[in-house]
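On clarity, I found the account of how folds are encoded harder to follow than it need be. Since the whole study asks how a given chain folds, the encoding of that fold should be made plain. For the editor and my fellow referees, an illustration may be useful. An entry of this sort, consisting of the sequence and the corresponding backbone structure tokens, reads as follows:

:::
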Amino acid sequence: MEQKNILSVKNLKKIYSNKQAGDNLALNDLNLDVKEGEIFGLLGPNGAGKTTFINILAGTVVKTAGRVSVWGFDLDKNPRQVRASVGIVPQEVNLDPFFSPRKLLELQAGLYGIKEKDRITDTILKLVSLEKQANSYARSLSGGMKRRLLMAKALVHQPPIVILDEPTAGVDVELRQNLWKNVKLLNELGVTIILTTHYLEEAEEMCGRIAILNKGNIVALDSTKNLLDRIQTKKVTFKTDIKININDDDLESLKIVSHLDNEVCVSYEKNKINIEELINLIKKNNVKIIDISTDDGDLEDVFLRLIKN
């Protein structure tokens, strides 16, 4: 079944004008579609335009040109419906320390004009595993709980799209795994997720498709798998019974990364060398190969290549 677009962005531009410094082009002709039910990653270095993009959807920044539609609503014609269709989990923790999670969610529901009988506060608290802390002061919550409470706040009006802005910036590994689990759960319930991040492993772990932004331009937009397939360089480590004699120019594109007594790590380009040639080269010296481990490279390699170009 063809998934339909839940968010569609055409030629989106944002220019910040500054009399002293001149114009700053934060978004330059951005085109992208997000499909219903996917986890979509928006990656890029700081200042790439990710936050500007989110703020335009949130209604806190006014675009310069272009079209944005969410859930079929046009941002210019139906700004309120667009805002109601999006839940945003901000980067910084901005919670009132003297309210309990339940109270905060009830207040948030009130702001959205949701009638008491239609509120799903308890369901949301359960979803982010805060039902036990429902009535504790927000200031007594741990960092991880506060992050989950921010997520809960974004869910109060049951938006079809949730945007997570750098959700795991500055959090420890365990907490990151926990948040990922929560996000996947939310996605399984049918919520479309847009995730901005500069942690590439996060994008690799979570996102089906990724757009890479640099200086306001999309430099790549593809499935995570295709982006990873674009990496040409492969690394291989060989453990051998004796030290081997091997040089950079023995095969085209071969580079010795490190060479210890009986362990050598080399990199090569997949389209120039196949692994058999490499194994034959090593065996030529009457050497026994005890172990081989390969490293396929990760999104970081794609990212750096795209941003360099």
